[in-house]
Design goal:
Two copies of one chain form a homodimer.
Chain A: H1 2-13, E1 25-28, E2 33-41, E3 47-48, E4 51-52, H2 53-67, E5 71-82, H3 87-104, E6 107-116, E7 124-134, E8 150-153, H4 159-168, H5 185-193, E9 200-203, H6 208-220, E10 222-227, H7 235-244, E11 257-261, H8 266-274, E12 283-290, E13 296-299, E14 305-307
Parallel strand pairs in A: 5-6, 10-13
Antiparallel strand pairs in A: 2-7, 3-4, 5-7, 8-11, 8-12, 9-11, 10-12, 13-14
Chain lengths: 320, 320
């Protein structure tokens, strides 16, 4: 079985680098400055509306590289397969990984497969690690966030988390909620390559927008003020959140990020984002100010200010 | 718990790159040519004589980079923890990963932790991916192996596999067999940086020496002839193999490799290897010839030639 699986992977992903077939792949770097990241994916169910564990594993690592301002190039993939996983499911996942890698413009260049006994895994776990190259001199990092920065999100939030939860709870909504999983490197590349100061980029994964903003505010020692009326949440997502008792601000996305842009560049940044398929719904959601009473403060729909706390515990386990 | 664990990792592994605390780590490359590899580790038991899943995960990825002729620099670590894993066990493993990384001269620069429910994992799975830089112009690859090459192994084989199996079977031998897990980059660095032609390097992991030689012979389209009397196997390992029904040629090692060296350089290569702590037991075990009847042929202790086949199936599951 092991050899069959490896043949399946080579068949799907095959490229001249992967085909080197040695313990490590060797290639030439594209620039001196490079980025490196890793993530393991343990999402359940493995396949969900709008994607599966494989698309998530490709897009997630592509996005982590993009958020550091790097252009993603090379990915590794490590599969941990539980005995008994259907080959059809695995093939579906592998094929969509190939499509996701092609769309994101990255190559899967090295991989590994392990099989564990039935009852010692959960169908499939995937690790992807990625290498990107940085061709510009900007410092893109939470520590660069300054009072006056505009906070822009590239679209409506909470869809990935609610797609998973609805599936798990066996709920079906009138309009099926699909995960927002998407590769963001193209959009980020447009943003960073223009004559545009970008202070920080961060995807809204584990813990959602609320946790992301809290983390950034605490590194940059600022207060981030957001306006609830500006935060885009689709109606069916808001409804599902209400029904299942979640706050969309804390729900994970897999194709959404926040950009911190100096205020005088915010209009131009919005335009660039809105011109890209994955930024059509981009909105200005808030502003950075000097640190006051709390790291993240939200003006609610009825005009009252409230503190948006860090998430405590995991609101949605195994969402990615 | 999640935050506690991440604090544990940062405490143990902390360095200026890991402390960047962004989605991906950014650094300067050391040379244009680089190597990239990944492996997941699912060994059971997690802790065994001579090492644990953590030392294996560091050394294994360090060795995969070294075998491609690269000098290992940066590692990522992804943990998949099953709920209920004792924090003491995790801490033991994390501390030995730190020691192994220090010994191998690599930095753990990015990481990820996922927790899965009890019954959906097996204590702990670890993925490590690694980046190395190649500072020389040699092509080190199975396709470079030529008739006339000497085949050298850096020490006695089969210890890792039998350490695991003895532990699993609850056997104790008079002299406890300890895993041979070791970082080989230092030794390889001595070998490659000298004025020495190195055609191929390959560690003897999954499937042991027999499978490794078969793989290389089939890529290079040669026959590899080995002499059983020259293949070093420790007496207690040979005894354990006999008792449990294994052939040491197929048993995985985690600190052993074969080097293919042009015959006129073999003596010098042996000396360099024997001068290093992880090559003290280095031995010339065979020679490459033009492809004849089979990829790998062994002259047995009683002087009879036999074909050494590729392993069929996994003789030792979850050995790494």
């Amino acid at each position: 079985m092991h050899q069959l699986i490896e043949k399946m992977f080579v068949g799907a992903f095959g490229n001249s680098l992967l085909d080197q077939g040695h313990d490590a792949v060797v290639f030439e770097g594209e620039s001196e400055k490079m980025a490196f990241t890793t993530d393991s994916y343990v999402v359940q169910p493995l396949i969900f509306p709008g994607g599966n564990i494989g698309t998530l594993a490709i897009n997630g690592t592509v996005n982590d590289l993009a958020m550091s301002g790097a252009c993603p190039h090379y990915l590794s993939v490590g599969f941990i397969i539980e005995e008994g996983l259907s080959m059809e499911t695995l093939w579906t996942i592998v094929q969509s990984m190939k499509r996701a890698a092609d769309e994101a413009g990255v190559q899967i260049v090295t991989g590994d497969t392990k099989v564990v006994d039935k009852g010692k895994g959960d169908g499939l776990f995937i690790n992807t690690s990625g290498i990107g190259f940085v061709g510009h001199s900007q410092q893109i990092h939470p520590s660069q966030v300054r009072p006056g920065d505009a906070v822009i999100v590239n679209g409506d939030i909470g869809r990935h988390g609610m797609a998973i939860m609805a599936q798990r709870e066996g709920l079906s909504f009138e309009n099926n909620i699909e995960s927002d999983t998407a590769p963001l490197a193209g959009l980020i590349n447009n943003l960073v390559s223009e004559e545009m100061d970008v202070h920080c980029l961060r995807d809204l994964t584990r813990g959602g927008m609320a946790s992301t903003l809290n983390e950034i505010a605490s590194v940059a020692r600022v207060s981030i003020h957001i306006d609830e009326r500006s935060v885009p949440v689709r109606e069916d997502v808001a409804g599902a959140c209400e029904m299942l008792g979640f706050d969309p601000l804390y729900v994970a996305c897999e194709g959404r990020f926040v950009a911190f842009i100096p205020h005088n560049h915010a209009g131009a940044a919005l335009k660039i984002m809105q011109a890209h398929p994955y930024g059509k719904g981009a909105r200005l959601v808030g502003q950075v100010k000097a640190r006051s009473s709390a790291p993240v403060i939200m003006k609610s729909k009825i005009g009252v200010e409230r503190i948006v706390d860090m998430i405590s515990g995991e609101q949605l386990p195994r969402i990615c």
